[in-house]
Design goal:
- With 376 residues, the chain is α+β, with helices and mostly antiparallel strands.
- The protein is 35% helix and 27% strand.
- The protein has 3 domains: 150 residues, ATP-grasp fold, B domain (D-amino Acid Aminotransferase, Chain A, domain 1, 2-Layer Sandwich), CATH 3.30.470; 78 residues, ATP-grasp fold, A domain (Dna Ligase, domain 1); 143 residues, Rossmann fold (3-Layer(aba) Sandwich).
- It contains 13 helices and 18 strands.
- Strands 7, 8, 9, 10, 11 and 12 form a 6-stranded antiparallel sheet that branches. A 4-stranded antiparallel sheet has the order 1-6-2-3. The chain has a 4-stranded parallel sheet with strand order 14-16-17-18, sandwiched between helices.
- Strand 7 and strand 8 form a beta hairpin.
- Helix 10 packs across helix 11 and helix 11 packs parallel to helix 12.
- It binds adenosine-5'-diphosphate (ADP) and magnesium ion.
- Adenosine-5'-diphosphate binds next to strand 2, strand 3, strand 7 and strand 10.
């Protein structure tokens, strides 16, 4: 789960990391009052779940009140099109004190699964062009695993600042590490972390991604979820208890079991098409859950066809067939629905579909499924 910059900065403050003063604004009618009570120069920052906002016109420095009002009015409500997240409506802006920047650094902690450790990435070449630095001067970016023999001072010395600044950076690394551990973050990124002209080290940007599978033990983090930023299909799926991920293809798929879902996506690819989603209805799904899952699938307007690939173990094939039949009866569907079922009550399931008076293509095996999908 992602959160906004302003929320991440609140967390940073709790962990003792310095951030500039700021106020959040969500309504056009509040802009004037907030800016009147704020100091200039200030920075107006679009709050959307995306990086690269600066390059997309979502971060603007205002030298005086007039400009601050103008930029706030422009950015709040704008459609921000960034290279990272496509088009997003800006529903909130952060009005933040402008900092006198001497140097922009990059600092992040990511979870390195292969090494079972948190990994630190640091560079003195931070800021909006960090991707460019990664391409053209990768030697300016240091990556270090935080394991038993990790010595932050040795790493920080490589980027060449004085003792006072190095000390502040090390404190920030320690705080970020505690934050990542305590809150189960998969990524904590500060870009830029700046050294000010006054020699202070301050986080000007803040990005945190949390481990969805650990959210059950962090009600405080879950409360930060902004539903407007979530994919509406995925949000609905979470409410229905389904494992659903939206993809870009045109063949909707409904499968039970994550492994079979992956294999099904491969089959669709072999047939020359792409999956429109990943959907695992789980082992013990009821007819009602199947019906909900099918309705969710079909709400995707890009679909050319639906492929249902179910292994009837705990989920019996007749339950599946009944759920799909109910869903199709209550919806107006005019795309092909291909069904492959195997396992418990396969024949009963096929009978329900074949006698439903609805149009299904029931296939016997995966090769037959490929042949049918190829012809779509
Ligand atoms: P993004 O990474 O989405 O482009 P940032 O928050 O990193 O957004 O802002 C982009 C750039 O704007 C920063 O690299 C920095 O140069 C400048 N900036 C951001 N916040 C401030 C601030 N409070 N004071 C001065 N400059 C800022
Ligand atoms: Mg940034």
């Amino acid at each position: 789960m992602k959160i906004h910059e302003y929320q991440a900065k609140e967390l940073f403050k709790q962990y003792g990391i310095k951030v500039p003063e700021s106020v959040l604004c969500e309504k056009k009618e509040d802009i004037e009052q907030i800016i009147k009570n704020f100091s200039v120069p200030c920075v107006i920052k679009a709050q959307v779940h995306s990086g690269a906002r600066g390059k997309a016109g979502g971060v603007k420095i205002a030298k005086d009140y007039q400009n601050a009002l103008k930029y706030a009015d422009e950015i709040l409500g704008m459609e921000l099109v960034s290279s990272q997240a496509g088009a997003k409506k800006v529903n909130k802006i952060l009005i933040e004190q402008a900092v006198d920047i001497d140097k922009e650094l990059y600092l992040s902690l990511t979870f390195d699964r292969a090494n079972e450790a948190i990994s630190l990435i640091i560079s003195s070449n931070g800021g909006m062009d960090i991707e460019e630095t990664a391409k053209t001067s990768p030697e300016k970016i240091y990556t270090e695993l935080i394991k038993d023999n990790f010595n932050p001072l040795e790493t920080v010395k490589k980027i060449g600042f004085n003792d006072s600044i190095n000390g502040q950076i090390i404190n920030i690394i320690n705080s970020l590490y505690t934050l990542a551990k305590e809150k189960d973050a998969l990524l904590v990124e500060i870009n830029p972390l700046v050294v000010t002209k006054q020699g202070e080290v301050i986080a000007l940007d803040a990005k945190i991604n949390f481990d969805d599978n650990a959210l059950f033990r962090h009600d405080d983090i879950l409360a930060l979820k902004d539903e407007a930023e979530e994919n509406p299909y995925e949000l609905q799926a979470q409410k229905d208890g389904l494992n659903y991920i939206k993809l870009d293809g045109t063949i909707g798929c409904m499968v039970n079991g994550a492994g079979l879902a992956m294999a099904t996506m491969d089959i669709i690819r072999l047939a020359g098409k792409n999956a429109a989603n990943f959907l695992d209805v789980g082992g013990g799904a009821s007819s009602e859950k199947i019906e909900k899952a099918f309705k969710l699938l079909i709400s995707d307007k890009n679909l050319e066809a639906v492929f249902i690939n179910i292994f009837g173990g705990i989920l019996r094939c007749d339950f599946l067939a009944q759920g799909v039949k109910n869903a199709i009866q209550s919806l107006n569907i005019n795309i092909p629905v291909i069904v492959r079922m195997e396992g418990t009550n396969k024949q009963e399931g096929a009978d329900i579909l074949n006698h439903s008076g609805l149009k299904f293509t029931v296939v016997n095996d995966l090769n037959e499924a490929i042949e049918v999908i190829k012809k779509i």
